Amino acid sequence: ILLLIRNPKDVATSYYHFSNGMSTLPSYDTWDDFFVAFMTKKMPWGCYFEYLSKWNKYADDENVMTITYEELKENPALGVKNLAAFFEISLTEKELQTVVERSSFQSMKKNSQKTHGAFGNILFRKGGISDWKNLFSEDQNAKMDKAFEEHVGGTKLGTKLKYEVYCKA
């Protein structure tokens, strides 16, 4: 099982744009309205912190590999190597480079009309890291940090996310 996790602040930011782009999901007049809904567990798919908390009990299972979006963005080749090793797939150097190139956000976005139709424009927006800094107020940042600590701060997944997001930033 591959468990891909991401900085909750970027999850909220991406979900805000995604939700406002999908007519079947609730849309929000402002970021502030969305932030309140996100933090008060009023998202159609539930609370991201609770999701992380539930997965945390499986984080040490030998059949679970946890990787962060941030790790994959920082070093895509190493990420692909680790994934291939976990799934016991041998790759030549050429195959590795092909996977890295074809799985890059830019490549997937470029091909999104072919692979996802009109949905591609909504699904593939920026693909970056730290876009949350363009939306979060200082107060929202503090509230998110507090919620993170309360839900997953001392857990394995929380520690992994904190390292990737705060220590490497």
Automatic annotation (TrEMBL):
Family: Belongs to the sulfotransferase 1 family.
PANTHER family recorded: SULFOTRANSFERASE SULT
EC number(s) reported in the record: 2.8.2.-
Keywords recorded for this protein, A-Z: Transferase
Organism phylogeny: Eukaryota, Metazoa, Chordata, Craniata, Vertebrata
GO molecular function terms attached to this record: sulfotransferase activity
Keyword Magnesium attributed: no
Source species of the chain: Charadrius vociferus
Protein name per the record: Sulfotransferase
